[in-house]
Amino acid sequence: MFTGETYEEVYNNFCWDIPKEYNIGVDICDKWAGDKFRLALIYIDENQREHKYTYWELMIQSNRLANGLKSINLQKGDRVAVLLPSCPETLFTHLAVYKSGAILLPLLELFGSLAVKYRLQSSGAKIIVTDQDNLHKVLEVKSELPDLEKIIVVKPGDQQDVIDFYEILNKGNRQFTPVQTLAEDPAIIIYTSGTTGQPKGALHAHRLLLAEVVNFSFSLNFFPQEGDLLWTHCDWGYIAGSFAALYPCLHFGMTIVENRRTGRFDPHEALRIISKYGVSVIFAIATAIRIIRKEVPFPKDHYNLDELRSITIGGETMGDNLYEWGKSALGVEFNENYGMTECDFTISNCSAIMEVFPGSMGRAIPGHTVGIINPDGEEVASGEYGEIAIQRPDPSLFLEYWQNQEATQKKYNGDWFLTGDFGYKDKSGYFWFVGREDDVIETGGFRVGPGEIEDAVMKHEAVEMAAAIGIPHEIKGEVVKAYIILRKNVLISPALEQSIKDHVRNKLEAWAYPKEIEFVTELPIGNTGKVLKKELKALDAKTRRKK
After folding, report:
1. Burial degree of 383 (CB within 10 A; 0-12, 13-18, 19+)
2. Which residues does residue 470 pair with via DSSP β-bridges, in sequence order?
3. What's the confidence (pLDDT) of residue 455?
4. Are 109 and 83 spatial neighbours (Cβ–Cβ below 8 Å)?
5. Is the per-residue pLDDT at 195 higher than 50?
6. What domains are there in the chain, each with its CATH number?
7. Residue 445: pLDDT above 80?
C-alpha cells in the first residue's frame, strides 16, 4: 500500500487501486472466513462478560441474517436502518445488509423519536433493526412511516407486530451468495446536520472503505503491525466508528475489542480495557482524551499501557497541552486528523514519517489532493486563509446527498469539494484549522478562529476545557466569549477570571482574548464528540434576553 521512507516518497509513490466490482461485507468478513480461528471481535457486554467472534462466525451469522432479510423481500437498493448500540448484532446486520446489496442507514442511540422519524421518512427505509431500549422511538412514529414495512427487534419480549432478530437469523441458511455490487454502487446513507435546514443524507458508495483503509493505516502509523489490537469509543452508527475504525480493522483481518457503553464516557473503563487486552492502537475523539486527562492524569500509575503504540484523534483540534500530555502520560504521539461525513478524513499526521506540530491537522493523506481555495475556486498562497477543499475524483467523496441534487451541487466549486471549514496551509504543507465559516469570530474587522482561542485558554493552569464563541457587540460586531470548565478544586473568583483573560491576551492578539468568561461544569457535546457551538450561542442569547 505504502512505499517510501519519507512523507514525500510515500505520497508521491501512492496510487489508488479501485476494482470495478467490490462489496464491503465480502471484503471485511468473507475474505477472511477461510481461517475458522481468525479472531475478529472481542465484545464485553453490559455485565462485563466477554464474547469472542471469529471471521468464520461472523460470516455464518451474517449469511443467516441475509437469507432472513431476503425472506421478507429485501431487494438490492432497499434501505435498512439500524438503531442499536455497538454490539455483535449490529455487526451481523451491517454485514448482511452490504452482502444483500441493500443500503445501510445507521442511527445513533442518542437520537430521539423525531430524529429517527425524519431519517426513516427521508430515506424511505423499508426495514429497521433495533432493540427493546430503542423500540419505543420507532413505535411512536410508525404511523407516519408509510415505507417502513418490517421492524426487527433484538430480544423483543412480548412485543407484538415485530420480528424477533434471532428467530429470523436462526431460520436462515448458512450459505448465502452475496449480491454482486460495483465499487460505485451505493452502500450507506449517513445524515449530517448543516447550519440551516434539516439534516441531509450523505450517500456513499462501497468504494469509500477502500479509501478509508488507506486513511486509517496512515493515521495509525501504518496499521497493521504484528499483534495490533484496536479499540475505539466511537459508536459504530457514526462514520468515524465504522468506516474510520471498525471496518478498516476488519479489512486487514485484525481484531477489534468493543465494550457495551451506557451513559457518559468512562475513562477508567476505557483504560481498564486498554490495559487488560493490551490494546495497541486507538481511534478517539479529542473530548474523550481530555476526559481521561482530567480524571486520570497519570494513567500509567494505575494501568499497564505498554502495548499502546499509536492514537489517532479527530473531531476537533487538540492543542499543544493535550499533545504533550499524551507523550508524557500515555507514551505516544497523537496523530491528529481531519475529516467529515461527506468525505471522512483526508488530512492526518503520521508521526512515523513526519514531524508532528501540535495544533496542525497534518498533511494530505496519500491519494488525496487537498487545497486552500478562495471563493473563485483558486488555490491561495501558503499561509493565506481560505476554505479547505478536496479535489475530485477522490474515492473518499460521497456520491450525493440523498434525493437532493441542488444541495449536492452547492458542495462543489468546479472540481473542488467545499468542506465549509476554513484554515490555511503552511509552507511545509501542514494544514491548520481556523473554524467553520459560521464559527469564525469577526471582531473589530479581524477574523479569529475559536480553535486558537480555546487552545490558548486551555494552556492556563486552572483550565480543563474551554469553548469560544462570538457574541454580539454594538461597536465591534462581535467579541469573544469563553465557556470554561475548571480543573478540580479550583475556585472561581474575579482574580482568576482576569488571570485567564491576561493569559490569553499575552499569547494571542489583543482583540482575540475573551471579553466575557462564563464558568460551567459541562459543555454541550454532540454525538461526534464536538462541542455544540450553536447551543452555546443560543444559551448566550437566552441569557442576554433575560438581562
Report:
1. exposed
2. 480
3. 85
4. yes
5. no
6. 55-206 (3.40.50.980), 439-546 (3.30.300.30)
7. no
DSSP class of residue 345? -
Torsion of CA 337, 339, 345, 347, to 10 degrees: -50
Task: Find the helix packing angle between 267-277 and 286-295, rounded to 10°.
Answer: 100
- Residue 474 contacts by C-beta under 8 Å, 6 or more apart in sequence? none
Instruction: Classify each residue of 46-59 as buried b or exposed e, where b means 16 or more C-beta atoms within 10 Å of its C-beta.
Output: eeeeeeebbbbbbb
Rounded to the nearest 5°, which phi and psi values hold at 467? -140, 135
Considering the entire predicted model, what is its pTM? 0.86
Residues 6+ apart with CB under 8 A from 440: 422, 434, 447, 448, 449, 450, 470
Rounded to whole angstroms, the Cα distance separating 426 from 432 reads 8
Collapsing DSSP to helix, strand or coil, 104 comes out as strand
State residue 40 phi and psi, 5-degree precision. -105, -45
Tell me the C-alpha distance between 490 and 463, whole Å: 9
> Distances from the Cα of 525 to the Cαs of 55, 84, 301, in angstroms?
35, 20, 29
Instruction: Report yes or no: 189 and 123 within 8 Å, Cβ to Cβ.
Output: yes
Q: Considering only CA atoms, which of 483, 486, 455, 457 is closest in space to residue 471?
A: 483
pLDDT at 449: 77
3 state DSSP class of 514: coil
> At residue 474, does pLDDT exceed 90?
no
| Predicted confidence (pLDDT) per residue in 332-382, tens digit | 999 999 998 999 899 999 999 999 999 899 999 999 999 999 999 999 999
Q: Write the DSSP symbol of residue 393.
A: S
